[in-house]
Fold each of these.
Amino acid sequence: MNKVSSIELLRFISSLMVLVWHYQQFYLPYNFFSEVELFYNNKSNQPFYEYLSLLYLHGHNGVDFFFIISGYVFAYVYLIEKKITLGKDFFLNRFARLYPLHFLTLVLVLFLQLYSQKFFNNFLIHTNNDFFHFVLNLFFISGWGFENGPSFNGPIWSVSVEIIIYIFFFFAIIKSRGHTIIKSILFIFFFVLIRKSANLDFFTNQINFNQNIINCGILFFEGVLVFFLNKKISDRKIFTTLGLALLTLSLVGNFKILIFLPSILIIFLNFEIFFKNKLGVIFNFLGNLTYGLYLWHLPVQLILIILIKNNDINFTIIESNFFFIFYLTLVFILSIISYYFFEKKLRDRIRNKY
């Protein structure tokens, strides 16, 4: 099916948010070599802080955008084509899309962390890099609550969490078709009720784990709901008004992230015709890079930290605009090469073979 250019743009922006947010990992305490401590104020020592302060402060919400975008995309792909009915087909598609790059970056980070441990007697950025956590990462369950904290290629936790919601989606929405809107609303209410429950220990003692799973479930099915609203509301003025109303509601009083995100998704969708006609090719290209940007930026950070250390370069370089641009450029180039010469080729090969 044709890609939704507005969604591809939003995916790219989300990945860029995470890249900028994780720039802090060049600083203490994540990078124990560095003597440069991170601080936030109007004269923050992070590059381009005057222009990128929102991303430095709130870039972690890019992951939340991934969750709601996934819900929309899954509804768009699997509920319109209606070709996927077997669990094998559904999960093979997910495996072919996600696992090859995950495995490649996991092994690369393993060797980089072993190098750091051998020559510097310490791990970099994430410290839970033992055999147990490697197994969790290997089987894509590093965010399910068994972990002691971030490990290896840490950002993969969000994809790990989404896998649980994929299972909900397949059995409740794809396998048992009909009443999709009602079921999506029920799922949202179900996860919201759990989120508001005072006893999150009902599932596990790891509160953060529960919040991640619950937030992913809410946002994913909000994305499914937005898809059907977009499909059924033919009057664009009504759809636009809905997006603006939700945006206003999310900003009144305490900030409401679970209302803000669907409002942004709706607003972006209202520009779909313009985006597709004017910049569709560019946005689709950028959207293809998002998974690579997400998984390559931490290995790149590890490599750069090791190179700076081995060449006795002063770590104040991380405060320079040049280094920031170099970091982003390196991740972008690697993501382009990765998508066209590894991810896409291996994905198609797996799908065609099985």
Amino acid sequence: MPSAITGFDFQPRTRIVFGNGQVDRLGELASEIGGTRVLVVTDPGIVAAGHVDHAARALEGAGLAVTVFDGVRENPTTLDVDACLETARAGAIDCIVGLGGGSSIDTAKGCNFVLTNGGRMQDYWGTGKASRPMLPLIAVPTTAGTGSECQSYALIADEATHQKMACGDPKAAAAIALLDPTLTVSQPRAVTACTGIDALAHAVETAVTRKRNEISTLFSREAFRLIVHSLTRVLADADDLEARGCMLLGAAYAGIAIENSMLGAAHSTANPLTARYGTVHGQAVGTMLPHVVRYNAADPEARELYELLARYGGVSGGVQGLVGAIEALLGAAELPRSVAEAGVDEAAIPELARQAAEQWTARFNPRAIGATEFQELYRSAM
């Protein structure tokens, strides 16, 4: 076995409600947790897909007042949180629904921090900095990607510096994660691809981090099994609800794994690509993931953990088979295989590596890594 069993403190904070059509229960569920005036945090694409109207009908049907903030942008910043906060205050809300991808759910969490505890988003960078109770939150993902619905962290960038801040507190976790596969059918194929690869990366990275434990391992492996067998199906047939459900569960399970294990070097390399080149997060982390797996596999314990993950997911061939499976999914998702396709040139690599080494996820990577090693990873991905 890779190592002795380590101690852990597992505190499930989020009730998971799963099934086709469960969004119709949104009003009932919001009432159960004390909501009377509900803020729905979402983005324009979710409005256009009709999901906001659907959610509002469910809420109003239960006698609840509804306020909508639909201005969330991809990779939200403090500007998104401030705008959402203004709407929340005007509506005198007592419950929040984050409806959409990770950006909407994270913005909902960010708003919750500042609305209930004051100050500004930067004050909550880190863990456990909210001293007062927060409003109940229902997270309703419409993508199978970030797993934010099952995490107590919001990832919000500073509008001025573009620095991504992980702001976490147990009180920020959603009271309920409502997982309805029918809501994910409306995603454009490119969104399905990028979010699915992001969820895959979460499953792979959480399986080997220094902070992993028996609980995170359970969720990492099951998330990987679900995703590796379902992503190609949803890419081939957008209406495959069974596969959509597996992806949604896989993303949520990977989110629980993150909560208990954290992430590693693939996410450290992805964030500078997004900040500098605007590369979609799932694309950035997917491009770098095979290279990070190969790098980490030089560590015997990480190699064995990767082999166990592959075996659990029904992937043969050990680490080489795992890398092959990841690359096959990147191919099915039609995502770039090199950072050069994102516009990266050799001259930019030292600065990208410096920024990657400063990312908080780097310290959880199973194999020690710094700016020199990050330069090697970026060059291998050219």
